[in-house]
Input
Amino acid sequence: MSDSNTALVILAAGQGTRMKSDLPKVLHEVAGAPLLHHAMFSGASLEPAHSVIVAGYGAEAVEAAAQELDPDATTVVQTEQLGTAHATDQAREALAEFEGNVIVLYGDTPFIRPETLEAMVAARKKNAVVVLGFEPADPARYGRLVMQGEMLEKIVEFKEATDEERAIAFCNSGVICADAQLLFQLIAAVGNENASGEYYLTDIVGLARERGLPVTAVTCEEEETMGVNSRLDLARAEAAYQARRRMDALVEGVTMQAPETVFFSFDTVIGRDAELEPNIVFGPGVTIETGARIRAFSHLEGCHVSRGAIVGPYARLRPGAELAEDTHIGNFVEIKNAQIAEGAKVNHLSYIGDASVGAATNIGAGTITCNYDGVFKHRTEIGARAFIGSDTMLIAPVKIGDDAMTATGAVVTTDVPAGALAVARAKQVNKPGFAIRFMERLRALKLKKSQE
Ligand code: UD1
Ligand code: MG
Output
């Protein structure tokens, strides 16, 4: 909690019927984070003193998600969805002692920019209530903002609007900023005698004006107000988010030949002069340092790639993969919970999990750290400058010393001392002429069978 004088109320009680999902709507994800988190990220720049999430459908799951991001967040439950004013009113008790601004956001509207909320807070200095408006390409069924000069006189819901009011292009995004105590006083005066039988939060504007209080609207871009009501909207929101992130990365000095094929998570960090080839997916928790190169068709999550490292093509980095500078991870290599030290190479067809690999070590093609015994996970520790022969099976727990080698095809079950060569495979036997005699016998057998 901070000492800021802003509180967030995030309305998230709706089931989202059109999502056709068992999951509450606000827990559907964009760029690896639930919609609810995106709404909380928008508000986070104001360093809110309180965040109150109004949950309804799937309240327990919504509360858990809110807590995961902000352990101080309060979740209140709206058992019946009686309208946006009724939803906001559920935060009354949680904010009873609070003095300052309340910002009401929707949990299914993930892209309101922090700058926009800051502009609203600034406008609040001269106004009792500030509403966020926008001019959509198609005003459809949005509530209309009735302005008189700088003054917002009222909001009319589409269902209630006259033809003249429906012709207004300036629409309500739903985001409202008001003094906390005034907000709850106004909400107490909101009734439900309207076309929907709902308590409209939008009615507080007219009520404030009746009291002679100044109310205004701040404007934002339509993209910011994009709401999610269906899977189609969710896919569109993902596309909008990715488009923005790709543009940001290009502006920040990241090279991408086909940016439209690179997918970021909400928290992906990419240093300048990094190069991202086509078709890369970043799951949550990835940091790519300056000058690293991620080659085509790679999938990364929960990992750190240092300067000068090369990953892929076709590499998979899973949570806990730590690549030091100038490491090379090649095709069809999977790294999980493993530290790969400076200059080490794992170039072909390998699985390195629960392991550490020392500096300048070379891991041969087809090496596998056999880390799982069916119940427990075990570690493999490989020293510096070691040479692991192709197709080595490292049965963990096991340690390979500095400058040690394993022979190709070794199945290593005990530690290998520094500088030693481990050979762990059957000795080769050559049987002269055997192959020819064997094939002749098989062909004769086949001929006999075909004559039966
Ligand atoms: C609302 C606004 C409208 C605005 C539009 C923008 C009102 C009366 N109308 O209309 O002016 O143009 O948003 O998208 O506010 N919710 C609850 N509990 C409830 C009702 C709603 O938590 O009882 C939540 C919903 O889950 C949703 C948000 O509040 O996240 C908005 O509700 P919704 O029913 O979509 O309002 P609209 O009719 O679209
Ligand atoms: Mg809506």
